[in-house]
Design a protein that fits this description.
It is a single chain. The protein is α/β, with parallel strands linked by helices and 599 residues long. The chain is 48% helix and 14% strand. It has a 9-stranded mixed sheet with strand order 1-2-9-8-4-5-6-7-3. Strands 11-12-13-14-15-16-17-18 form an 8-stranded parallel barrel, surrounded by 4 helices. α7 links the parallel β5 (172-176) and β6 (192-197). The chain is globular. The structure holds phosphoenolpyruvate (PEP) and magnesium ion (MG). Residues 407, 447, 468, 470-471 line the site of magnesium ion.
């Protein structure tokens, strides 16, 4: 969307604001640097005579080999520079040789007698749409990685030099359709001020990397590469998801001031984030981090996280389009546990839809995956995959405090069955003489309304509950969390959601088990007074959100928050609850969040 802003200083070129997705917070001002796909974006189809088919397949194999070699050298340099990012490149390398990518392209050249470029395009388009159809927004974004990898191979096929981002020699803001893992891993932090992309969202690879590297990013802008020219002066507002092209002097001054205040504020809260989040009446609320990739533990520690409240483990299953081995999983989990020790690490077992888990199997497409063979349902149907993961987790548990978290639980039977898998896994490890720890806490995600209603029965079987508001809101309000059309109805402060939270926390307290929250709701300042009043034991969030939440908690009082809840629960709409919170806590919230609107 494009909005014209008033010209405060009558600039010669009109100032333009373009909105996108706020993927990484922060502000930067600088010159645009376009990363183009010229030379590989238009692909021609032509036939290959039978006698030249071997030459054509060899041409493709050579391009794959060249890409593999380039990847290998990037992996080496990334290991020194960004550590964990190398694992994403390793995933790319696996994909390069995958049957679905490599094998099918060769088959297509041979069977259809067409040129390698066209065969590659055809196979890639199929793979991309397969990923895009996946329900989980995180996995959906992986289609971008397939595109980028294919583009890389295409460059090597057609002999177009790729832009080496690592060689950019001035401070710039990168503009691209989408940045590939290879491109992002070449980034020199001293040169790249910010990212803007046409595609991708908060959970895209670029989004994750931008947040990890703390570079402001606005993604999913649609047409940024067409609207912004090389060397245009632009402002990236990663808080509001805004890009301002040709900013007026006044706009630049305003943003520079905002940047200065943000830097000061961040320095203050990050310094304090190493201390406990203790309320003014002495309650110590644990503030944890959510991670998807092992390397994100660094961000949790740097931002003062009290542990990992949610380690999403889907990435490793999807990224290589195959199932990881027990040892591969163990290595990743052990790394995280060792880095965090003695702080706890909550590993959530595979939460995947039927169609996602069997990415290569087109026969298994569900019409409604959010209500399908997802999470624990899938795992219990695939004991081979499930026990592999469970054994890896039990082994990692001997290196620090590990908690096991089960997604999508809606019945006691699912917990009982999982415990049998755990016992079985432990006895196998025992027989194999491997080091493990069976004595770990077991908890469940509360993200299906049935789990709230059945909470008393479920509580008897587990050590903790962790409320997954992302799904709980989706299922309670019947709002598809990934559907833009109904996004305006998706509201954590909806009275129905608040009633759910009240019920489940009350049951946890009565039953004497711990109650946590790891959905996005836990990291948004506006919700904190309510979560404090409900007396949750832990909140887990995006690592970047930890310092501000800790700071806010320190200014609050649980006694007052509990009284405040009486008023909250009288409200009949999300809007009314929102207003009430701002009347009572608005000043404090705006101090914590320099760009948040006060009403
Ligand atoms: C949730 O549903 O709130 C949650 C944390 O899990 P995910 O976002 O991975 O579904
Ligand atoms: Mg969920």
């Amino acid at each position: 969307m494009m909005v014209n802003k008033s010209n405060k200083q009558e600039p010669t070129i009109e100032e333009i604001s373009i909105t996108g997705i706020a993927a990484s917070p922060g502000i930067c001002i600088g010159k645009a640097y376009l990363v183009t796909t010229e030379g590989v974006d238009v692909v021609k189809r032509y036939s290959i005579e039978k006698k030249h088919l071997v030459e054509e397949t060899n041409r493709f194999k050579t391009a794959i080999k060249k890409t593999g070699d380039e990847l290998q050298s990037l992996i080496k340099s990334s290991k020194n520079k960004f550590n964990g990012h190398a694992s994403i490149l390793e995933t790319n390398q696996a994909l390069l040789k995958d049957k679905l990518f490599y094998g099918r392209t060769l088959e297509t050249i041979e069977n259809e007698r067409i040129n390698a470029e066209w065969a590659l395009k055809k196979v890639t388009d199929k793979l991309k749409s397969m990923f895009r159809e996946m329900e989980d927004p995180y996995l959906k974004e992986r289609s971008g990685e397939v595109t980028q990898l294919a583009m890389w191979v295409m460059r090597n096929l057609v002999g177009v030099e790729s832009i080496n981002i690592g060689k950019i020699d001035k401070r710039v803001i990168l503009i691209a359709s989408e940045l590939s893992p290879a491109e992002t891993s070449q980034i020199n932090l001293e040169k790249i001020k910010g990212f803007i992309t046409d595609r991708g969202g908060v959970v895209s690879h670029t989004g994750i990397i931008a947040r990890t590297l703390e570079i402001p990013a606005v993604l999913g802008m649609g047409n940024a590469t067409k609207m912004i020219q090389n060397d245009d002066v632009i402002v990236v507002d990663g808080f509001q998801g805004l890009v301002i092209v040709h900013p007026s002097e006044q706009t630049i001054i305003e943003y520079e001031e905002m940047n200065y205040r943000y830097a000061q504020f961040k320095a203050d809260i990050v310094r304090d984030s190493m201390c406990d989040a203790q309320t003014t009446d002495g309650v110590n609320l644990k503030i944890m981090g959510n991670i998807e990739l092992p390397e994100e533990v660094v961000a949790v520690n740097d931002n003062g996280g009290d542990g990992i409240g949610l380690y999403r483990t889907e990435f490793q299953y999807m990224s290589s389009l195959g199932y990881p081995t027990e040892d591969e999983l163990f290595d990743k989990y052990k790394d995280v546990v060792e880095v965090m020790a003695p702080k706890p690490v909550t590993i959530r077992t595979l939460d995947i839809n039927g169609d996602k888990a069997v990415a290569g199997n087109q026969d298994n497409i569900e019409t409604n995956p959010a209500l399908g063979l997802r999470g624990i349902r899938y795992c219990l149907q695939r004991p081979d995959i499930f026990s592999n993961q469970i054994r890896a987790i039990l082994r990692a548990a001997s290196f620090g405090e590990v908690r096991l978290l089960l997604p999508m639980i809606s019945s006691c039977a699912e917990i009982e069955e999982t415990k049998r898998v755990l016992d079985q896994a432990a006895s196998e490890l025992e027989k194999q003489g491997k080091q493990y720890n069976r004595d770990i806490k077991i908890g469940i995600m509360i993200e299906v309304p049935a789990a709230v209603i059945m909470a008393d029965a479920l509580a008897d079987k587990v050590d903790f509950f962790s409320i997954g508001t992302n799904d709980l809101i989706q299922y309670t309000l019947a709002i598809d969390r990934g559907n833009r059309e109904v996004a305006h109805l998706y509201h954590p402060l909806h009275p129905a959601v608040l009633r759910m939270l009240k019920k489940v926390t009350q049951v946890a307290k009565d039953k004497g088990i711990e109650i946590y929250m790891c959905g996005e709701m836990a990291g948004e300042l506006i919700n904190i007074p309510i979560l404090l009043g409900l007396e949750l034991d832990e909140l887990s969030m995006n690592p970047q959100a930890i310092p501000a939440v800790k700071c806010f908690v320190r200014s609050l009082n649980v006694g007052e928050a509990k009284t405040f809840l009486d008023e909250v629960y009288k409200q009949r709409s999300a809007k009314a609850v929102h207003r009430l919170i701002y009347e009572r806590y608005g000043d404090l919230i705006s101090q914590m969040n320099i760009t948040a609107p006060v009403s």
